[in-house]
Amino acid sequence: MASVRDLKKVSDTVWEIPPSYKDGMRVPARIYATERLIREMDDGVIDQVTNVATLPGIVGHAFCMPDGHWGYGFPIGGVAAMDARSGVISPGGIGFDVNCGMRLVLTNLTFGEVRERLRDLVDRLFERVPAGVGSTGLLKISQDEFRRVVEEGARWCVRNGYGWDEDLERTEEFGCISGADASKISNKAVERGYKQIGTLGSGNHYLEIQVVKPENIFDPQLARAFGITLPEQVAVMFHCGSRGFGHQVATDYLQLFLKVMEKKYGIRILDRELACAPFNSPEGRDYFAAMKCAVNMSFANRQVILHRVREVFSDVFGRDPSEMGLHQVYDVAHNTAKLEEHIFDGQPRQLLVHRKGATRAFGPGAHALPPVYRKTGQPVIVGGSMETGSYLLAGVETGSQTFFSTAHGSGRTMSRKQAKRMFQGKQLQRDMEGRGIYVRTVSFSGLAEEAGPAYKDIDEVVGATELAGISRRVARLIPVGNVKG
Length: 485
Description:
The protein has about 475 residues and is of the alpha+beta class. It has helices spanning about 35-40, 45-50, 110-115, 120-130, 145-150, 155-160, 165-170, 185-195, 220-225, 245-265, 280-315, 415-420, 425-435, 445-450, 460-470; strands spanning about 10, 15, 30, 60-70, 75-85, 90, 100-110, 205-210, 235-240, 275-280, 325-335, 335-345, 345-355, 360, 380, 390-395, 405, 440, 470-485. It has a domain at about 5-90 and about 340-360. Helix 4 (about 120-130) crosses helix 11 (about 280-315). The model has no long low-confidence stretch (mean pLDDT about 95).
């Protein structure tokens, strides 16, 4: 088993493992972390990131972000760019919850205006945004209509009255990644997903009411550009993905890749969880089109949740949502593979960038960004634990070193089983309320799994991304109300 002793310190936030470390490594592996985070990182991360470095077509480095921890195939926090012509696509480098992502919305309300109605807001959000394992949404559509949704993403939602046109501009891929093909998804995947649009799910997914305090603004100019203009401004942040649909898409193609990978394409891997196929193969292209359906389902899921948030605020305050702001800052995706053009070795090159528990973080001037953010760089949303707070960051020019990728959250330091042994859900709920955080949960055991100490220090993780030059801090957001699956 590898350990942190095998790492070479490149800088205060970059640690490297050379290709000579393991047979088959095609590129070095790099971990972005402070010394403290490196000491806390489980050894499995090093084994996994060096396994990723053996995949055909990988360029540059196999990366792990500061929130990295052991995952399926890739470490969570793993990033790898594959040459579009000679490389592979791997579901283990994308994840089962495809496009598990974050959305941030700002109100023009201050905490003083919300404080007395906070419990009512959280209670109604708990009712209007179903959470938990197997939860189904309030949106009733047929399986045929669901197939249209997964090809059109958030655009379907806005066209059908579940959002505003401006939401699309402020969503990664403008709410719909092109090339999704519903003919490439199984009936079982459709059956698992068509009732789940507008739902949170379980695990580390949440819907949170937050406050931005003046002392937690790190870049006032960027904060204003992103819409933070009031003292103790109230925000809403939520984290969810493609639910059972994305899980089934990944499962279907993992099984297919395991059958054809070695027999048909002669690809041998160190870990079967890295099952893959050549990107330009029929199987690779079919998975890419199916994965895009899961990406779009997730954009649609978060779009409907935003619509429910606006409904609840309107009901509670008796005002039109637009009068209270409720403008989306951005929606960012984790768990994707995307074709992107990057400058590599001084030349533009088309790469398939896998981001598993990592966030795209384009810097200023990137053509893929909407005009509103082309000068500032991309907003990046990094979720922390429900006890500690989250961050709004921005992409930077120096992010090119990781193909413009950064952390996506705190990252676990404790297994879910261990957290449930150490914490009691009901007591945790009472403790949090005593500290000013009102929580509604479907499951107290699930709440215990998400206790703050089960996660890395969010300030340390975000600080590492800034020190390394892969993103910039804008503001910290403090939780005051939370809906958990």
